[in-house]
Amino acid sequence: QVHLVESGGGLVQPGGSLRLSCAASGFTFRLYSMYWYRQAPGEEREYVATITSSGAGTYFADSVKGRFTISRDNAKNTVYLQMNDLAPDDTAVYYCNVKLSSTTYWGQGTQVTVSS
What's 49's DSSP letter? Predict the structure, then answer.
């Protein structure tokens, strides 16, 4: 059974930082790329970032490029999203996912609120 559990969200002031974690189980984590998405209230879920299986390749949405970094620890089956210089527009529920064959698995999400 695939499980993805996000954590690390919270309330932060504009310009602040947060690090999200996604703990994975139920599949061979080191073999798969991992993804972060987010969904703001009233909006569709949008892509945020990708990290390849080895961690050598990372990709970002234009909206977060230069402010967010993605990393992974294959020994801990965990992927991270470091978010810096946060803005109110970054307020959303953040989800990690993995694509296994034809199925995409999602975690339950973690809320990030950027507000003064």
Answer: E
Which residues are CB-neighbours of 114 under 8 A, at least 6 positions away? 12, 13, 14, 16, 86, 87, 88, 89, 90, 91
Contact (Cβ atoms closer than 8 angstroms) between residue 42 and residue 114: no
Query: Could you report the per-residue pLDDT of 35-84, keeping only the tens digit for each?
Result: 999 999 999 999 999 999 999 999 999 999 999 999 999 999 999 999 99
Q: Of 22, 56, 11, 50, nearest to 34 (Cα)?
A: 50
Q: Closest Cα to residue 8, out of 94, 107, 76?
A: 94
Name the residue among 72, 68, 37, 70 with its Cα closest to residue 54.
72
